[in-house]
Every structure is written in structure tokens, then in C-alpha cells.
Design goal:
Layout: E1 5-10, E2 17-21, E3 26-29, E4 35-40, E5 44-48, E6 53-57, E7 63-67, E8 73-78, E9 83-87, H1 103-111, E10 115-117
Antiparallel strand pairs: 1-2, 2-5, 3-4, 3-10, 4-9, 6-7, 7-8, 8-9
This protein binds zinc ion.
């Protein structure tokens, strides 16, 4: 059903790991100019540590997924937009132009305070 795991994200202490499959939607910046990578929410799977995963609503919208033990934030999930926002940008992700980002997704993300770049066809 997928192209297989694209990568794995683990928190500092290793209690929680997430698997990301397929390709990122695009790259951008969050409200405080930190680089982020946008992924389809359904591309994210919990690899291990579901019991340690703390999902809490954020003031700006979306749910923050963090580790209960080390408190590292792994991603921000925006259910209504269907997007997971991961902090940081993997080197090879910047070379990967995913075709899936649409202008409506981009508008939803911008409404959430993100700035989108590296959008194919933009
Ligand atoms: Zn941890």
C-alpha cells in the first residue's frame, strides 16, 4: 500500500519512534522561522512507544505529538488539513519534489501560520 518506510523518527530517549512512508508534501517554515517538513498525516505510523506518546492540543491549532519521558516534540498533526508537520528538514527531502501538495493544502497550511516553499509547479 505504500512505498515502504521512508525513514524513522525517534525522540531523544528512544522511547517513541515514528515511521514515515512515501514522500513529503513539501518544505516550509513555521511561525517562528524554524524549518519544517510537511507530510501527509496518513503517511505517519507509530513504530514503537505508543504508550509513551503524549498527544496534546496546541494553542495555534493541531495536536502536538511528544514523548512523555524526554518531552521531545516529534511532530504537529493537523487533522483537518491532513498534514503532519515535522520539525527540521532531511537533506534528501529538499531534493525531493513531491507532486502531492496542492494549492488548497498550501492555503490550509498558511492559515495555520506556516509558510510553504518548494511546492512543485508554484
Ligand atoms: Zn523520549
Amino acid at each position: 500500500m505504500s512505498n515502504g518506510p521512508y525513514g524513522q523518527i525517534a525522540c531523544d530517549c528512544g522511547a517513541v519512534s515514528l515511521l514515515v512512508c512515501g514522500a513529503p508534501l513539501g518544505l516550509g517554515l513555521d511561525a517562528v522561522d524554524e524549518p519544517v517538513t510537511f507530510w501527509p498525516l496518513d503517511a505517519i505510523q507509530i513504530g514503537q512507544g505508543a504508550d509513551e506518546l503524549d498527544v496534546s492540543p496546541q494553542a495555534g491549532g493541531g495536536d502536538c505529538w511528544a514523548c512523555r519521558r524526554c518531552r521531545e516534540r516529534l511532530l504537529c498533526a493537523h487533522e483537518e488539513a491532513g498534514v503532519a508537520v515535522l520539525t527540521g528538514q532531511e537533506g534528501d527531502a529538499s531534493d525531493h519534489h513531491a507532486p502531492a501538495m496542492t494549492s488548497s493544502w498550501q492555503r490550509s497550511l498558511e492559515a495555520l501560520g506556516y509558510r510553504v516553499r518548494s511546492v512543485p509547479g508554484a
